Amino acid sequence: DQQVKQNSPSLSVQEGRISILNCDYTNSMFDYFLWYKKYPAEGPTFLISISSIKDKNEDGRFTVFLNKSAKHLSLHIVPSQPGDSAVYFCAASAQVWGAQKLVFGQGTRLTINP
Amino acid sequence: GAGVSQSPSNKVTEKGKDVELRCDPISGHTALYWYRQSLGQGLEFLIYFQGNSAPDKSGLPSDRFSAERTGGSVSTLTIQRTQQEDSAVYLCASSVAGGLGGGELFFGEGSRLTVL
After folding, report:
1. Are A104 and B35 inside 8 Å of each other by CB?
2. Of B41, B105, B109, the CB nearest to A100
3. List of chain B residues whose C-beta atoms are within 8 Å of the C-beta of residue A44
4. A19 near A35, Cβ under 8 Å?
5. Which of these, B37, B36, B38, B31, lies nearest to B53 by C-alpha position?
6. Are B46 and B67 in contact (CB under 8 A)?
7. Cα-Cα-Cα-Cα dihedral of B63, B41, B109, B101, to 10°?
8. What ranges in chain B are assigned the alpha helix state H?
9. Is A13 buried (19+), middle (13-18) or exposed (0-12) by CB count in 10 A?
10. Which helix (H) or strand (E) holds A37?
11. Both ends of chain A: CA-CA distance in Å?
12. What is the spatial distance between Cα A27 and Cα A94, in angstroms, rounded to a whole number?
């Protein structure tokens, strides 16, 4: 039962363009969402998060959008840079669980082409 | 250290042997988590510690898996009688406190386990 789904295993974008990574979830209890970035042979690193009381959160080149009715969130990276090439994981959790048990998606490998 | 430290970084073992994986969280972080990533899969939650207690063990895949944390710091994940399906990267993470609202997890580089 995959509660958090990233349906695109890979994405290729030209440098300078916008990268859009998508994530869908099924559990309506989720109320906190995060994106993590992972380089090879390294642990994931936190990128940006959003609470369900918001529909948008922006941090520099990174913006996360949340559509609660559609149970969908997306990460926009603009402009895309070669250093953004990595695997991106979407994650979700619920305050009522009382612990930060994150449920992760399968990841999307983003490749930025020069 | 500055970050989450895990050892060994790589472990190759024979089926049926026991293995121990160690995690040293960021100093002062009270919450500690174990995840694993199997080939082609996302990160799978295993267990969560708040201090030395484990309020959530729901992700441990079988009774061959156990974990402990002592002194509110170092944690050890033990896999007994390893099976080939246990092969994965085991990731440890810590956070300032269990709970959400900006308390993102800081991950170590992982321990890659290969069971032959």
Report:
1. yes
2. B105
3. 43, 91, 107
4. no
5. B31
6. yes
7. -90
8. none
9. buried
10. strand A32-38
11. 38
12. 9
Task: Give the whole-number percent of chain B exceeding pLDDT 90.
Answer: 64
- pLDDT tens for A24-55 read 999 998 988 999 999 988 899 999 999 999 99
Q: Does residue B53 contact residue B41 with C-beta atoms inside 8 Å?
A: no
Q: Which residues, other chains included, contact B6 with Cβ-Cβ below 8 Å and sequence gap of 6+?
A: B21, B22, B23, B24, B90, B91, B92, B108, B109, B110, B111
Which secondary structure element, helix H or strand E, spans residue A58, and what is its range? strand A56-59
- How far is Cα B43 from Cα B65, in angstroms, rounded to an integer? 17
Q: Which residues contact A92 (CB under 8 A, 6 or more apart)?
A: A3, A4, A25, A27, A30, A32, A33, A34, A102, A103
Would you say residue A98 has pLDDT above 80?
no
Per CB-CB distance under 8 Å, the chain A contacts of B93 are 43
Q: Which residue of B has its CA nearest to A34?
A: B104
